[in-house]
Each structure stands twice: as structure tokens, then as C-alpha cells.
């Protein structure tokens, strides 16, 4: 009974010491006293838009005209390549056009003496006012001097590959048209394409330097072409008429014979026959043997042989190039 009362009133057992309490509750020993706070090192991080790459340092400020400090040549590689290609294209264009002009000028210089000797007026300049006031032999001499002084100006440039000249002032001849068609040397890519198409397909003609001369006779129609001069009709004798019997005759290179027949209707009316006076690579296209005996002179044969493969055809015709529809 006494022990019960002692327990109720707090007597009997002594109070437990702090060491005993700590030993009894050893699982919470780490939290008996709070840890001393220590500072945490935080390194500043700069976030970029990508979120993954390293932060870029800002370039120092420079003047607006110091472009070399803000940019480098490596940034303009594509632009440099484009400029290089444009430069090459321009150089090829200029050099090719100059080559064509040089070839055309060489041709007119070589043939100008012949044209001046055979025609009273060469080129597109016409008769100068000083020469127009003269007559007779003085007029002929003045026209010859004008044609000689004309030089390269007798040739007119129609395009970078087409050139033309003109001549008139010869008995029984209205005028002469000469056309030069050269390779497109200013555009080698197009020239190669045309060469390839002409090599693989017969329908495409391979481009080459060509001179085409067309002479138009009066054939008795001077009154319809040249203005009449008072008294000129009486001065012209009947036997000096420019009219002649119409016919079709041609001297053709055999390699060009098929092309000529396909392109010209008038030549298709003739028949082909070899001639003993001609080399094996030339043939005659004529309507009759009598015309061949008259036209095939030794001078013509010699000139054709001298031209060689450069000669394609010489055609005399009174028929149209295109077949009439009716």
C-alpha cells in the first residue's frame, strides 16, 4: 500500500538523469542539437535561347565603319563564288564578241578591193554630197575614193554573230547582199549544245561560219527598180538590155547537195550530173547540158577548187526558194 501511494504522489524512484534519457533515445541523437548553417557556393549561369550551348561573350563596341572588326571574309564565300562566276561569264561574252568582230573585219578587208572594183557603191553610207555633184569619170573616181576610205564601216553589225554589207552600181545588176553568220563565240554553252544536236540529229544543222552572197540582176526591169532619168531610154540600145533567158543552174558540193534540195524549191527542179571538168567532190545541178557548157567556165572551176571544202554551192535561179501553194 505504501508503494502505491509513493507512486501516486511522485515519491519512491529518483528522476532519470539526462545521460540515461539520451541513451534510451539514441535514434534521435543527431537531432538533439541543430547543425551549424554553412554558406552554399552558387556559380552564376547565363542561359541562352538554345538552352544547351555555351554562353557567348558580347563583342566590344566598334565604330560603324569598322566592318572588318565585326565581320570576316569567311562569311561571304557564297557571294564570292557568285561574283567569280559572273566575272567569267562576262569575260567570255566580251572576248567571244570581239573575236566575231575581228573575223568579220578581216573578211571585209580582204574582199573590199574586189567589191570596190566591181561596184560603184559599197556599204550602207550611200553617195556623199561631194561625189553627188560630179559626173562621168570624176563621179566614178569619187565613188572609188569613198569606198576605199570606208574601210571596216562597209560592214554593218546586225547582232553579235550576224554581219552584213551591200553593194550596188554595176551594169545589169540591181544590188548585191552579203550576209556573214558566225559561231556564237560569246556563248560557248549554246554553241556546244547546237554542235551536239547537229551531231546526233540530222534535223539540226551544226553551226559554222558561213558567208552568203545574193546578187539580184535587173533582168530587164530597171524601170521598176531605178528612177528614170530623162534621155536614158534612148541611150540604151536594144542589144544592151539586161534581160536574159531564165533557167536554174547550180554548182554544188556533194556533201551539201541533200541540204540544198531540202531547203530550196528551185534546185529540186534540176537533175544532177557529174562533169569531167570538176573534181570528184563537186557536181552540177542543171536543167540542160547546154546551160552547163555555157556556165562552167575554167575560171569558175579554178575558183571552186581553190575554195575547197569552204565552198558549198553557187546557184543561178529565176524560181522562188519556197514552193508556190497554187
From TrEMBL:
Keywords: Membrane, Transmembrane, Transmembrane helix. It is a single-pass membrane protein. Coiled coil: none annotated. GO terms for biological process: endoplasmic reticulum calcium ion homeostasis. The keyword Transmembrane applies. One of its GO terms (cellular component) is membrane. One of its GO terms (molecular function) is calcium ion binding. InterPro entries: CCDC47. It is found in: Membrane. It comes from the Eukaryota. The chain crosses the membrane at residues 80-99. Signal peptide: none annotated. Pfam families: CCDC47. PANTHER family: ADIPOCYTE-SPECIFIC PROTEIN 4-RELATED (PTHR12883), PAT COMPLEX SUBUNIT CCDC47 (PTHR12883:SF0). This is Uncharacterized protein. It comes from Lasiosphaeria ovina.
